[in-house]
Amino acid sequence: MSNSQSDSQLPSSLPREFTTTHWSVVLVAGGTASSAADGALEHLCRTYWYPLYAYVRRHGHSESDAQDLTQSFFARLLERKHLRLADRNQGRFRTFLLSSLKNFLINEWKRGSREKRGGTRKIFSLDEETAEARFASEAFIEQPPDSVYDRGWAATLLERALTSLRSEFEQSGKLDLFQRLKVFVWGDKCALSYAEMAVQLNMTEGAVKVSVHRLRQRYGELLRAEVAQTVSTPDEVNEELRYLLSVIRDGLAKSGNLGEEKL
Fold first, then answer.
1. Could you give the CA distance from residue 125 to residue 137 in angstroms, rounded to a whole number?
2. CA 192 → CA 84, 181, 183, 207, distances in Å?
């Protein structure tokens, strides 16, 4: 993202590249084995593990029970037969997953028992302590379980896009530039002005502004790509992005941080 980088080096807009999403692959994989579907489903499950875990915790389950229930839910989802229940008219993966989890928890409650994680195959190697710490840091915000799920979903997609952006900078040998400019991704909140940042980076102020503009542009493209993997059609991408931003704004308002970031 140097000042000499040409626009032609940036990815083309998503609608032209939008062919087959992870979710659309999963939708047709309910009855057939496919390595592509397996990989796509694992990618999506990793993305949604924390939002679902947070939902279960908000329902009053303990840390260990929430971990067991979330892992057990994914174990059953990966048995594929549950994918046949997916409604193509409800094309968002987050909607399908939350509805499936709610049914799963009701059935578990009716049975009065559940499979412990030791009784099922380990689905993912996850840092569950970090997940619990993240949930604890957000627990002070009063909100229903569905809102906890939506906030976790939105935050996870934002994080994934930022991680991808960091990786691109690192691969191009500009990790230090990313670390310094990432505070500008969502707005202009920074302890340093553009002029002060320019001095530190040995760049002109204009070059810093251009770099920040391209940083934000590329982040938006990567976020759009993340959202695209969780819907069925290109038409749903913009609508899902608008919903994601509304969730973030609502979360900032509830936490008392609205206005600290420009969304």
1. 22
2. 53, 10, 10, 15
Please count the other Cβ atoms lying within 10 Å of the Cβ belonging to residue 175: 14
Residue 242 confidence class, pLDDT cut points 50, 70, 90: very high
Closest CA to 98 of 39, 40, 58: 58
With 0-12 CB in 10 A as exposed, 13-18 as middle and 19+ as buried, what is 178? buried
Residues 240, 174: Cα–Cα separation, whole Å: 31
pTM (two decimals): 0.75
Q: Which SS3 state, helix, strand or coil, does residue 5 take?
A: coil
Rounded-to-integer distance, Cα 61 and Cα 55, Å: 9
Token pair in block for residue 188: 């202009």
Which of 244 and 115 is assigned the larger pLDDT?
A: 244
Pairwise CA distance, residues 224 & 161, whole Å: 9
Hey, is 172 helix, strand or coil? coil
Res 11: pLDDT? 33
**Rounded Cα gap, residues 53 and 131, in angstroms:** 8
What letter would DSSP give residue 139? Answer: T
Q: Which two tokens stand for residue 24?
A: 């659309």
Tokens of 258: 């609205």
Does residue 104 sit in helix, strand or coil? helix
From residue 26, how far is each of 32, 36, 46, 91 by CA, in Å?
A: 10, 9, 14, 11
Task: Render the burial of 220-233: b for 16+ CB within 10 Å, e for the rest.
Answer: ebbbbbbbbbbbbe
